[in-house]
Amino acid sequence: MREERSDMSEDEDGGGGSAKSRGGGGAPPPFSDQVLEIVLENVLQFLSSRRDRNAASLVCRSWYRAEAQTRRELFIGNCYAVSPRRATERFRRIRAVVLKGKPRFADFGLVPINWGAHFHPWVSAMAAAYPWLEKLCLKRMSVADGDLSLLAHSFPNFRELSLICCEGFSTAGLAVIAEKCRHLRVLDLIEDYLEDDEDEMVDWISRFPETTTCLESLGFDCVGGAVNFEALEALVTRSPALRRLRVNHHVSVEQLHRLMARAPQLTHLGTGSFGSAAAAAAAAIPQGGNNVVDLVSTFAASKSLVCLSGFRDMAPQYLPAIYPVCASLTSLNFSFAEISAEELIPVIRHCHSLQIFWVLDTVRDEGLQAVAATCKDLRELRVFPLDATEDSEGSVSDVGLIAISEGCRKLRSILYFCQQMTNVAVVTMSKNCQDLVVFRLCIMGRRRPDHVTGEPMDEGFGAIVMNCKKLRRLAVSGLLTDKAFAYIGKYGKLVRTLSVAFAGNTDLALMYVLEGCTKLQKLEIRDSPFGDSALPAGLHHYYNMRFLWMSSCKLSVRGCMEVAQRLPHLVVEVIRERDEDDDHEAVEKLYMYRSLAGPRNDAPPFVEIL
Amino acid sequence: MEGGATYVSDLGNLKATELRLGLPGTDAPEKPTPENPRGSKRALLEANEEFRGKSKSPEADPNGQEAAPMAKAQVVGWPPIRSYRKNSFQARKAEAEGAGLLVKVSMDGAPYLRKIDLKVYKGYKELGEALENLFKCFSLGELSGMEGCNGSEYAITYEDKDGDWMLVGDVPWEMFISSCKRLRIMTGSEARGMRSSP
């Protein structure tokens, strides 16, 4: 790419120069400029990485224009960082949009409902500007049924819709999409909140066209109500291109069996409940034997399956049915299945090719040891807690973490919930797993120290940033002093995302991070004793960041106001949910982000923009 | 009103000022069913006023020096698990119990309702915790009626067999679940209105 750019520069200089001399002392003839831009466009169209494109657009005006004309994919990491109008005016030929809204802590109830991130202004602008839009991916946006309807009616060539952690729409909106988007290939609903009242659910599955569809991926495991199964089966039957199907927990294992028989070409399967339809599961056991045998042969026939998920209400006797596909599985999500180590081991020991594994802590350290023994190619591990409270009995511990680090040396990403941990285990992982890019450890007990030595967890996390040279994302927990943050600031030079909760002693901790982490883009902090005097440490860097979130820290309006005044292109939001009768100065929640759009005009009453 | 007076004096003891998350009326010593439920409602309203004056958010202290009775208060959004995941397990538990007693729960200002199975809970305290969990994404904070968001109170009410809206917590638990048809978490002025009704 770089060679091309320098070649182009030479050509441009040469061409421009000669044109100028030919033209005498007047303005260069526009025609050769246009020719150059067309040539540029033909080259730039091959640039796909948005970072490369952003760099190219900075070269000169000509490149800026050419890049804008040739960009096909628009990525908006913060829907408030730019206005829809400005984005659609600069980029005229967009075919695919990724749009993200609320800050991540909204997932945990820290952002009040009606905060914002409305899809409506975006879909309205795009409806006018991008009639050829094909793909849309929204994350943490507030999407109304009306927005989905506008989408369905505005983009005749629409192909792919992914909604991740969105809310505000219902099955009525899905029905319009199904009915009107005749070229739909992908409809992926991932962890969304649908607004349905159970009495008013719409049979959206029946609204897909009656003819053969071009559906490749259909995922609705988050849709709360039961879908019309006959319609679903018929849909699967007339969708020969279907490769990914994720059903919700209302689909029983018997129904799943029928769907799989219709779609043996599936590569990704979300299995729904994986339990028997009959409420009295015990009564089903006599037939259960036959059912399992049938199910095994169905799985055996699904030679393309590489990804399994679901298992929302799994009856353990059905688990052996998946043995035939285990060896070829690259991704397995058991994180909704309450299985024990004994139930896991016979399955996991077949999974030699596994790269992604999500599981509940019910499998305990023993289960993780089995994973470590077999899954030598594991890249991503997530261990979720069954009982997500601080004082629940810990099921996995430092033992499991060490085992994983010793067995899965290629690990790149880990999310690990536990009740207690040791520095030794974390240090061990930092040395064994040098490829780690994402390290998220959640010790659920707040401020819990190393359970063996009683010391803070500083050394463990310090080792992670020191030894894992590729680390880009870090989430810390447990008892942490300022020292941990000194380590992070000193060694975490590639860290882009940092999540902090109940940690640190003084403002120094935050200052270390703001000064040291030169690539920091997303910083989210809660319940840590950081105050106003730490904020200026980041003034040189806030424009490089996507956002800073701080809640239940020690900030005041004065401190935040200073930042707002020094940095005019930073939107500084103070979110106040309750009337602090005693303290109007205290800032409960701070959310600040760079923006070309200025303060947003849709802020609800509880948001104050400084 | 007599029943009401007794209730208020009961609350004069130390237990009344214990800072907990829970519906008013939980853990109170067994008292005879008030003859007039509406009368004792007023006593509860007064009790709520008392609580509101004295209580403070349990999560307010970032230095971790929580007062002993508050030490185990659950904090909003911690551990960081998405509600989607939490609710999947709760819903499954409710469904597994069989028919159960499913009632709709609405909250003022929330765009959608939830449904819970009353049979799953042993008493008002568990119910309060569950409701808090369900509506956590609306930044509910405490659901006890003691202190709410935006400086306004919350009141958990239910519609009984007669179609009347009652404040939750007045009657014994068993009587409550047999007469409760749906729940509503009231906010703001209406909640205050409930409290000041004679």
Query: Strand order, biggest sheet of chain B?
Result: 2-1-5-3-4
Record field, number of beta strands of chain A = 21
- Strand elements of chain B, count: 5
Radius of gyration of chain B: 16 Å
Concise account of the structure shown:
The complex is a heterodimer of chains A (610) and B (198). With 610 residues, chain A is an alpha/beta fold. Chain B has a five-stranded mixed sheet.
Question: Can you offer a commentary on this structure?
Answer:
Chain A: Residues 15-26 have a biased composition (Gly residues). Chain A: It is found in: Nucleus. Chain A: Part of a SCF (SKP1-cullin-F-box) protein ligase complex. May interact with auxin and auxin-responsive proteins. The complex is a heterodimer of chains A (610) and B (198). Chain A has 610 residues and is of the alpha/beta class. Chain A is 35% helix and 17% strand. Chain A has 20 helices and 21 strands. Chain A has a 21-stranded mixed sheet. The radius of gyration of chain A is 27 Å and the shape is globular. Chain A starts with a helix and ends with a strand. The relative contact order of chain A is 0.05. Chain B is an alpha+beta fold. Chain B contains 7 helices and 5 strands. Chain B has a 5-stranded mixed sheet with strand order 2-1-5-3-4. In chain B, strand 3 and strand 4 form a beta hairpin. Residues 1-14, 25-71 and 141-151 of chain B have low confidence and may be disordered.
Q: What are the SSEs and their pairings?
A:
The complex is a heterodimer of chains A (610) and B (198).
Chain A: H1 2-23, H2 30-44, H3 50-57, H4 61-70, E1 73-76, H5 84-90, E2 96-100, H6 120-129, E3 135-139, H7 145-154, E4 160-164, H8 171-180, E5 186-190, E6 217-219, H9 229-237, E7 244-247, H10 253-262, E8 268-271, H11 281-301, E9 307-309, H12 323-326, E10 331-334, H13 341-348, E11 356-360, H14 364-374, E12 380-384, H15 398-407, E13 413-418, H16 423-432, E14 438-443, H17 458-467, E15 473-475, H18 482-491, E16 497-501, H19 507-516, E17 522-526, E18 547-556, H20 557-566, E19 570-575, E20 586-594, E21 607-609
Helix pairs in contact in A: 1-2, 2-4, 3-4, 5-6, 6-7, 7-8, 9-10, 10-11, 13-14, 14-15, 15-16, 16-17, 17-18, 18-19
Chain B: H1 2-10, H2 14-17, H3 37-54, H4 83-96, E1 102-107, E2 114-117, H5 124-134, E3 154-159, E4 165-167, H6 173-179, E5 182-187, H7 188-196
